[in-house]
Amino acid sequence: xxxxxxxxxxxxxxxxxxxxxxxxxxxxxxxxxxxxxxxxxxxxxxxxxxxxxxxxxxxxxxxxxxxxxxxxxxxxxxxxxxxxxxxxxxxxxxxxxxxxxxxxxxxxxxxxxxxxxxxxxxxxxxxxxxxxxxxxxxxxxxxxxxxxxxxxxxxxxxxxxxxxxxxxxxxxxxxxxxxxxxxxxxxxxxxxxxxxxxxxxxxxxxxxxxxxxxxxxxxxxxxxxxxxxxx
Length: 231
Known about the structure:
Layout lengths: L14 E5 L4 H12 L3 E6 L2 H14 L4 E6 L5 H14 L5 E3 L6 H16 L7 E2 L7 H8 L7 H11 L3 H4 L1 H8 L8 E4 L7 E4 L6 H16 L9
Parallel strand pairs: 1-2, 1-4, 2-3, 5-6
Antiparallel strand pairs: 6-7
């Protein structure tokens, strides 16, 4: 049976943080969490756009519990400030959705699960991919001159053959909320670019070396230890 919004369990009492929550997959994810009763911390760079996104969620779910945090993922200082604000206002985060279009996060997510297991903590890290989704990611990337020479083609392809945002968000929604999901798993569309959200095999030769390299580079470039400690 396909995992749909109706499959998402009651999230009342949970605190969920979603990055990039003012549009596309992040907005859809935040809206679903809010509709299920979670308090949603919407981490966003553009606060004006974020205010419109929050108003849209409240139109769908008048009782939505929402909070905005300014976050620019391109700025480490902004990340530190946002994290401090969240820690000041909340004693825990139950669900964290790092909603982004950077495939290095695949290895980071798997490496983080390995660190959780080593430290013996209860947290779980899962990986999700939206397939080819017609969100504002492609159009924004092209408008800002990013994505390389093939970016306009993929934006064109997503506009004509991509899944709707509601469908593209389901892999990360399922990874975050399916009671049967387990750390280290990978969720994506059944047919790679489209289809219902399913658990897919983790098949990437050399991933252990890639994880180790990514970890080392991340620590070197950010100056932040990636060591996970219990407690």
